[in-house]
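Repro:
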Amino acid sequence: MTIIIYLHSMREIKLLETRSEIGAGTRGASLGIDALKVASWDFKSPYFSNYPIETIPNKNKKLFNKIEYKYAKRIKGVAKVLESVANATKNTIRDGVFPIVLAGDHSSAAGTIAGIKMAYPDKRIGVIWLDAHADLHTPYTSPSGNVHGMPLAVCLNEDNLACKKNDPPQKIIEQWERMKNIGGIAPKINAEDLVFIAIRDCEEEEIHIIEDQNIKVFTVEESRKMGMKSCAAKTIEYLKDCDYIYLTYDVDCIDSSISKGTGTPVPNGLFEKEIEELMLAFMHTEKLCCFEVTEVNPTLDSENKMAEIAFQILEKCTHALQGK
């Protein structure tokens, strides 16, 4: 068994790059990582030369193929990507290294969480979901069929049949079960070990799961009223019984007046400095075992603004992890 000593100054870091965007409905998220690198060059930062990088294979060539299954588009390709992300995450953690995942679309998070659980099969994994969306849809409920709206349902082993609206064919169901059971473990997380921050664009099917399973939510208004450091502290306190914590930062948690460079911007979100303060506060918990940055889409942006914001937060968080 790998024993990780949680001294920030000693943490070895590895970047896992997954450019998959086949789970998204809008094209361009696969270019997000390169947009982050352009931002680093513009800021004259050596960030991407300071850490080892592993590039995870993607299935983006499937974007040229006809969509076969409307209730979970390109789900077979997504499943393969998630398995690759899971194995890379698991192996990185078992090597005693802290993985920072830079992703295209947010479906990747199901693979990251699976990899953490595969590395720690007997431990409770807490999840902090910093996002405008709950991503709790399933092939039985999704109005779009975009799998980047489903990663948390995957990890919760949730079908949400109580809100069933679709009748997916057997081939979709088989791939759905495949994703839920990556690593031979399902569920990967428990509802009581999940915290949403800044979600504000949810369908009724997702709200049903949140209310039925009493999932913790800090709204933008609540977070702002209590202050970002207090929100972080209350989140960590809520997850106190978890052994490890994963944090994911979907850039659309930022207000749409700023976050134009992402596929699904939503108004009334957090502002850049608030996200930075919140993220930095989370870097100081010793239980943090991985964090992820996702959904930067430079094709929708002007002058690479979203990537610049995301990169500055990424760099500051990485330095905080290392005690710099």
